[in-house]
Specification:
Layout: E1 6-10, H1 16-25, H2 35-44, E2 50-55, E3 58-67, E4 72-79, H3 88-102, E5 108-110, H4 117-125
Parallel strand pairs: 4-5
Antiparallel strand pairs: 1-2, 2-3, 3-4
């Protein structure tokens, strides 16, 4: 464990309120995505790919990932504003990458919302590139 006292571990149900508060603090929530429903859905599918970073009993980071047999995906990577620029985001992404690679995953994809230039620079520094693709979406189950 690095000397910063941060422990990376699997999400536990008791973490739900702290993770949702973290997502709010990081500006990751959107009105059309109910975070409680997102967490419950994740716990039904590859729950081992939902990680939290804890320091002194407090959740300071989280990452949710998935693997569909073709590509890995990362969602809801969050580092509390007070814990940014400490290497925690990199540690979370490295752990997600290691877990996905152990499953046989050949490539990780992620999406960055338009205008989120700061996080684009973070992923650039980790070696992530931009693929020439357009993401399309169709909501099957409304969260309202």
């Amino acid at each position: 464990m690095p000397s910063d006292g941060v422990i990376l571990r699997r999400f536990e149900e008791a973490d739900e309120p702290a993770v949702i508060a973290l997502w709010h603090a990081c500006g990751l929530t959107r009105p059309w995505n109910d975070p409680v429903k997102d967490i419950r859905r994740k716990l039904d599918v590859q729950r081992d790919l939902f990680l939290v970073a804890e320091r002194d009993g407090r959740v300071v980071g989280a990452a949710m990932a998935g693997y569909d047999g073709h590509r890995g995906w990362v969602y809801y990577l969050a580092v509390h504003p007070e814990a940014r620029r400490t290497g925690l985001g990199r540690r979370l992404m490295d752990r997600v990458a290691a877990d996905l690679k152990a499953m046989g995953c050949p490539k990780i994809n992620l999406m960055i919302r338009g205008g989120n230039d700061a996080v684009a620079g973070f992923y650039d520094a980790l070696g992530y590139g931009t693929d020439a693709v357009a993401v399309r979406a169709l909501r099957l189950i409304p969260d309202d």
